[in-house]
């Protein structure tokens, strides 16, 4: 990659950082603890890939539903030594208020609140783990876009001094986000790092295109934004979080977010200063979902738009086309004082080929895959 291309890649990030360029003082919460919405900073790194910088032998990424390379997943005895976390829960469907009339980031398209119908569907109980994604890669030979591009973004707090010395580019508005050569799902912090001790953590550095391929392989799909938000709300109307409005129910942490002054220090009061296992923390609502907010951002099907009306919506699937895809749920880098986007109504966006160290996925399905209907011991 030439110097001019690297500069273009980094400059493009400035246009896509999570919620950073759009918020203003007028869009802050009236609450004194609202995020720093005026700041041109983001708690999620958004990267618009420079296609010309990609390796010549790599395929051009496409935001479509092409089939994965080999075959659909079928349970095989002994196919993984790790505990399976591919279970799904049934979401009953219904009508709810999507969005909010009291947006924290109005420019993100959080409002207005609109009545929205969602049909019953199934959703992964857990975020897709490294162990589950490894099955996909081992059985298909799939290559993620971060691997094809040769780099991905990582927060500098998690990088060694040796790695940081090799990096000459950074994002002016968010200098803690660094493009790290060799960073991908298998090497979360770049060359020389591994998944040791993290197989039950959510897979990261996965693009929307990677997520689509994985979900199709397991006989599932990505949830629509409406489905994700319906599931997040857990049957509660106009609440901030899946369980209600209390950040720490009964004084306990129910999600993995940033504690302390961002970005200088994460005190890890919730037990984690980076990603947490997909099984960590209590079930966040009556649907039994884990980490539907916090831990990592999660992709949805929808193209991004900030233009919404109060008209009734029946199973909306977003615009027919666009530049960015919607992600939901916030991540371990979100905090109320900085990037308050782990609320059910909150949202952000990335280009379909973007990847970062706080971006993962969870799958949905209209019908439960047959291999999950009556799980045998050798399947789970």
Automatic annotation (TrEMBL):
The organism's place on the tree of life at top rank: Eukaryota
Leader peptide range in chain numbering: 1-23
Transmembrane segments: none
Keyword Signal among record annotations: yes
Composition bias, Basic and acidic residues: 27-41, 48-64
GO CC entries: endoplasmic reticulum
Cited Pfam families: FGE-sulfatase
GO terms for MF: formylglycine-generating oxidase activity
Region (Disordered): 27-64
Residue intervals of the Sulfatase-modifying factor enzyme-like domain: 85-364
Annotated InterPro entries: CTDL_fold (IPR016187), Sulfatase_Mod_Factor_Kinase (IPR051043), SUMF_dom (IPR005532), SUMF_sf (IPR042095)
Keyword line: Signal
Cross-referenced PANTHER family: FORMYLGLYCINE-GENERATING ENZYME, SULFATASE MODIFYING FACTOR 1, 2
Family: Belongs to the sulfatase-modifying factor family.
Protein name (Swiss-Prot/TrEMBL): Sulfatase-modifying factor enzyme-like domain-containing protein
Organism: Littorina saxatilis
């Amino acid at each position: 990659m030439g110097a001019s291309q690297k500069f273009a890649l980094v400059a493009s990030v400035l246009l896509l950082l999570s919620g950073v360029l759009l918020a203003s003082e007028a869009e802050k919460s009236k609450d004194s603890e609202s995020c720093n919405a005026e700041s041109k900073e983001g708690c999620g790194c958004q990267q618009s890939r420079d296609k010309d910088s990609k390796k010549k032998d790599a395929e051009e990424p496409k935001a479509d539903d092409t089939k994965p390379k080999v075959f659909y997943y079928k349970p095989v005895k002994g196919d993984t030594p790790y505990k399976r976390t591919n279970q799904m829960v049934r979401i009953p469907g219904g009508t709810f208020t999507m969005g909010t009339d009291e947006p924290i980031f109005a420019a993100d398209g959080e409002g207005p609140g609109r009545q929205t119908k969602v049909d019953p569907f199934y959703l992964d109980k857990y975020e897709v783990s490294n162990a589950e994604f490894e099955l996909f890669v081992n059985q298909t030979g799939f290559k993620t876009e971060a691997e094809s591009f040769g780099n991905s973004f990582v927060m500098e707090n998690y990088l060694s001094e040796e790695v940081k010395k090799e990096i000459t580019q950074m994002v002016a508005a968010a200098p803690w986000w660094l493009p790290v050569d060799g960073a991908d799902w298998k090497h979360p912090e770049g060359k020389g790092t591994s998944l040791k001790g993290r197989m039950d953590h959510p897979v990261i550095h996965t693009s929307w295109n990677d997520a689509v391929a994985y979900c199709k392989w397991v006989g599932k799909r990505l949830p629509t934004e409406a489905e994700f938000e319906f599931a997040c709300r857990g049957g509660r109307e106009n609440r901030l979080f899946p369980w209600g409005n209390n950040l720490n129910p009964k004084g306990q942490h129910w999600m993995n977010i940033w504690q302390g002054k961002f970005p200088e220090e994460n005190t890890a009061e919730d037990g984690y200063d980076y990603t947490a296992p997909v099984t960590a923390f209590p079930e966040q609502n009556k649907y039994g979902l884990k980490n539907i907010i916090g831990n990592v951002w999660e992709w949805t099907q929808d193209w991004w738009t900030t233009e919404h009306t109060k008209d009734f919506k029946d199973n909306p699937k977003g615009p027919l086309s666009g530049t960015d895809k919607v992600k939901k749920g916030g991540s371990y880098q979100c905090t109320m004082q900085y990037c308050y986007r782990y609320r059910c109504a909150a949202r952000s966006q990335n280009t379909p080929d973007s990847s970062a160290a706080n971006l993962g996925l969870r799958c949905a399905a209209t019908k439960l895959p047959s291999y999950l209907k009556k799980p045998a011991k050798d399947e789970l």
